[in-house]
Amino acid sequence: xxxxxxxxxxxxxxxxxxxxxxxxxxxxxxxxxxxxxxxxxxxxxxxxxxxxxxxxxxxxxxxxxxxxxxxxxxxxxxxxxxxxxxxxxxxxxxxxxxxxxxxxxxxxxxxxxxxxxxxxxxxxxxxxxxxxxxxxxxxxxxxx
Length: 144
Known about the structure:
mainly alpha, 51% helix
């Protein structure tokens, strides 16, 4: 074996690696498109869940909370909040409605959004729907 790293060797490594990783990308893409329908639960997507997602976005909840790992890390993860609140949408609604108007001085606290009963129901249903996703055990701990 020669000790020199030639131009042709470098070219072969480059093209060989490019082909290998392109084929790996295609295989992983195919696997994902094959397994996603099994993990998807869009058939449970009701108008109330869609409204809850809309309320979530309008109030910028993701500005403080994460949901399934996406968002800010200022407040708790909400992907599993439904199970943390004892599988109760009523507990979620009560928690959101009970927030103080001005927060607690010197502490981070959730603001009072003064949501209507319909909006509270919708957000609770959205969080319930999110918790029913097959997330491959994410978040890794119960508190998010």
